[in-house]
Design goal:
The chain is α+β, with helices and mostly antiparallel strands. It is about 20% helix and about 40% strand. Strands 1, 2, 3, 4, 5, 6, 7, 8 and 9 form a 9-stranded antiparallel sheet that branches. The mean pLDDT is about 95.
C-alpha cells in the first residue's frame, strides 16, 4: 500500500518530523539513535571527520531543533564548539526511510540543562558518575565511578536543523526530497530530488 506521503511533498516533511518526534520518546523507534558526524582537528591540525551514535532526547519541531545529552568533558563538546556544523543520520530498515540532516550544534541553555537533568532517570544519571573524562585512557576495561552522578558534567546539546534530506526506498519507485530551514525554523525551500 502506498503511504499518503508518497507523492506529497508537504506530507513527506510532516512525516519526517513526526518520525523524529517519536524517536525522541520511544526507545524502540529506529529514530531514537542518531548517527552524528562532525569535524575535528587531528594531531597534525588537519580536519578529520568524527562519527558517533547519540540518543535523540528531544525534538522542538516548530524551531527545527533536536537535543541529545553528553558529558561536558567529552572531546565532542570541544569539537562542536570549534566547528559547530554537523550532519545527523537516521535510518529505519523496516520502513526503508533515511533522514539526513544538516545542523548547527550548540550547548543548551542553563534552563534546558536543569530541566533535562531533572527528567533524567537513575540509570541515565549513572553515565555522569564516571570520575574520568570520556575517552581518557584507563588501565583496565572498567571505568571508575563516583558515589553520585555529577550534574555539572551533564551537557545537553541542541542541533538547529538547517536542511533535511528524505529518502524513501519503495518497490513502486523511490522518493527523495530536500527541505531547507531558516534561522527561526521556517521552511524556506522544498523540492523533490532524483533518488
Amino acid at each position: 500500500m502506498v503511504p499518503a506521503f508518497y507523492n506529497d511533498l508537504a506530507l513527506t516533511e510532516t512525516e519526517a518530523w513526526a518520525l523524529l518526534a517519536r524517536g525522541a520518546v520511544d526507545r524502540k523507534s529506529p529514530y531514537h539513535l542518531m548517527q552524528l558526524a562532525s569535524l575535528a582537528q587531528d594531531t597534525l591540525g588537519d580536519a578529520e571527520p568524527r562519527l558517533r551514535t547519540v540518543v535523540l532526547r528531544g525534538v522542538a519541531r516548530a524551531e527545527r531543533r533536536l537535543r541529545f545529552h553528553t558529558d561536558v568533558r567529552s572531546p565532542k563538546v570541544a569539537e562542536l564548539a570549534a566547528c559547530p556544523r554537523v550532519q545527523a543520520l537516521f535510518y529505519d530498515p523496516g520502513h526503508k526511510i533515511q533522514l539526513r540532516l544538516k545542523a548547527t550544534a550548540a550547548p543548551a541553555s542553563e534552563t534546558v540543562r536543569a530541566e533535562a537533568w531533572e527528567k533524567t532517570g537513575r540509570l541515565g544519571r549513572v553515565c555522569y558518575a564516571v570520575t574520568a573524562a570520556p575517552s581518557a585512557p584507563q588501565p583496565g576495561p572498567a571505568a571508575a565511578f563516583a558515589d553520585e552522578a555529577d550534574p555539572a558534567v551533564f551537557q545537553p546539546m541542541i542541533l538547529t536543523v538547517t536542511a533535511l534530506d528524505w529518502l524513501y526506498l519503495a518497490g513502486d519507485g523511490h522518493r527523495r526530497a530536500a527541505f531547507t530551514y531558516g534561522p527561526a525554523g521556517d521552511l524556506t525551500a522544498a523540492s523533490w530530488l532524483v533518488p
